Amino acid sequence: MTFKTNLPAVSCPALSGFSVLEVRGADAAAFLQAQSMNDVTALAPGHWHWNGWLTPKGRVVALFALLRLAPDRFWAVLPDFPAAELQARLQRYVFRSKLALSVPPVVVAAGPQTATPAPDQAAGDETQGIALDFGGHGGPRTLWLLPSADPALAPAEAGTDRAWYAADLAHGLPRLPAAAEAWTPQMLSLGRLSAFSLRKGCYPGQEIVARTHYLGQAKRELVRLEGQALHSGLAVDTAAGTAAGQVVCADDSGLHALAVLGADAGDDLLAGGRPCRRLTLLDGLARPA
């Protein structure tokens, strides 16, 4: 992952709400393989994929980008769920495993677009900063993981936060409210992001995920909406008044959102009693692509 970043001073505004959890030790890979929903054994050092942690009932607790720094070392980049809270919850399952969970002195930031060897391959190192390709069909963007004292870091900017959040929604990356734990990976259409595996061994919620897939029981899906006064938890109905689903997350303008709706909800929709319309989810954010 070595390259020279040469980032200008104060060029990378921190992204609000993002944090990093480190999992390190001889048993780190086995621990993550047993706890997370994607296949960690398929992840080579220097590469990353989407992953998550589920409840035993198969509901998503936290969604994250998992970067394998070395055979025995990982960083989980969390867009919403606080790393310290996930550390405390995962610590209950460590038992005698040879690993340590910690929150490293790393800041997640937006910054200059940087080419990486492949969409799922990181560039850089911990000293100079690590770049991840978060681009998709909506355009290029680079997420930076920088040391907390890096001179390239700048304070969070509302405009940058809004633009990043909007791009996440447009590409179908759900920004989950704290303590939601309401949706399965299939309801959130996380297969679009290659974020879970049906071939790996057991993990919390695996039975629900597998049963939903193999019995064809995925009756709800993620939909991108445009409307007015959209917000998390808002009910979405058909024009005939039948319940269709619920808004998962929305931007702060209330104009754009992601919702989990019944697969047969149709196109004539009301959100909070106001008309709204479907927008096409953009591709290109799956990792590996």
TrEMBL record:
Superkingdom of the organism of origin: Bacteria
Gene3D superfamilies associated with the record: Probable tRNA modification gtpase trme, domain 1 (3.30.1360.120)
Domain GCVT N-terminal: start-end pairs: 15-94
GO biological process, one term: iron-sulfur cluster assembly
Keywords assigned: Transit peptide
Magnesium among keywords: no
Matches recorded under InterPro entries: GCVT_N (IPR006222), TrmE/GcvT-like (IPR027266), YgfZ/GCV_T_CS (IPR017703), YgfZ/GcvT (IPR045179)
NCBIfam families: ygfZ_signature (TIGR03317)
The protein's name in its UniProt record: Folate-binding protein
